[in-house]
């Protein structure tokens, strides 16, 4: 009864929850675009190894130690053979000789231990340095890449290359390459010793080797795919987690926690299943290797004892063979693992090199001059620009701005206001036409000198982790504490800064979580003032400031803008009323320009926008 009373409601709830989870699944679409492994590619391996070149000096002792370690390991069973045959078997127990062989064995182990310790030290040092260089080179290069590059990629995928992909090469450089060489030398060495010492027995005990390679190859492949699947599932969880944390406020505001939880639970379950499968497959590998190894040992003792009885081999040789065979399977096993690791590293290095080889689309010409001591005349000469081929964002913009003038850019959303600014800062280059400052095409001047003449206060004010003082000083790193404070006072930010617990030394988090939007904007004003650029851009800069702060800001802006050419993008038209020139954009074209009074008299688009805004505010 209890069950039937509860049943329909519970079933209904379950059904609705399942529907919600299903809807969530459809909402989150993850593309597994990152290929996890790539075929072996010699060119790429050589390119990777070239990162070791600067450390040639450390490479020499490392290789010497590696050879010494491997040779001593190969020599040890040979000494056992001699000790048994010469000191125990033949001489009927020559204690002196036995002690000598014992001493040699001890010596070999000490040398082997020392050689391995020194080798590991050198490999770690070289490996870490190579990874450091690679990460540094990658980051340095990414910083140079143009906006077009970032437009095409989500921030997460760029992040993953600098972290995960570089990390996956770390193992290869710190252990992989050296172990691979050591294992190869050991395998070839053992095979050669066995065949030289007794060809027939050598062939007999190694008869299982091809079998081992086949089993190991096939199984490893399956295990590799299973682990790849785990990585894909984990990377999905990571992307979802990233999105869930970034969008936490929206999730809570729309009360979507339960749905998010269910979706996460669904992905987590899939991940667990995938992990269980891979791990179960992995566990089958050990017994298979052991069985194959046991077959080899069985053949050794069966055929070996036969050869012993017929006096073809000695007891020492049989024991020595057993010893060598014991050292034979481990390298085979490791080589399989190494091969998998190498294929994963191939994919990671390909992704890293793809970024390193990416040329910035905004390039500096070899003859670029410094742009210094400018007046601030700006001209846009018949500019055509498109972000995506065939979809022009600017369609022939011509605009003359005299030094010291303030220009407002207005127009509907998507009309091209920010694009004009992007071209002035050379974040992109126009497809046609030219942007000039004081008559110089900005493609002929160095990017650094151009951007240091152009100050920008963006709509989304970025606050870096650090103190308030550091954040203002970002405008000019050499500014003194007094200059930082003066800039803050000039834009009316000083008052709120000193009211914070540690004043100018208050620590703020990435993106300025402890500050209000208005406060963040005031800080970025101070930052721009400190930079003292000849040309200033304010992109929606006053959008988030309340009326009282806005009055303060308007006052500060007069100081900030005095003597500078300025471009102001503002949706609130009241803030740009006093600009010298108001440029009205419509679908990438200038449709009107003039001062406020002239445009109002004209009664065109601007007049319409002012009317609409007035109606909206008084509604
Ligand atoms: N990174 C980009 N990649 C592709 N298209 C873009 C990109 N940035 C802008 N666009 C497109 O270019 C056109 C102009 O955009 P722009 O950002 O200059 O408009 P806006 O006038 O500043 O708009 P808003 O007032 O909304 O900020 C729009 O159609 C927009 O969709």
From TrEMBL:
Compartments it resides in: Cell membrane
Swiss-Prot/TrEMBL keywords: ATP-binding, Membrane, Nucleotide-binding, Transmembrane, Transmembrane helix, Transport
PANTHER family reported for this sequence: ATP-BINDING CASSETTE SUB-FAMILY B (PTHR24221), ATP-BINDING CASSETTE SUB-FAMILY B MEMBER 6 (PTHR24221:SF654)
GO MF term list: ABC-type transporter activity; ATP binding; ATP hydrolysis activity; ATPase-coupled lipid transmembrane transporter activity
Organism: Paenibacillus albicereus
Membrane topology: Multi-pass membrane protein
InterPro entries: AAA+_ATPase (IPR003593), ABC1_TM_dom (IPR011527), ABC1_TM_sf (IPR036640), ABC_transporter-like_ATP-bd (IPR003439), P-loop_NTPase (IPR027417), Type_1_exporter (IPR039421)
Domain ABC transporter: 378-612
Name recorded for this polypeptide: ABC transporter ATP-binding protein
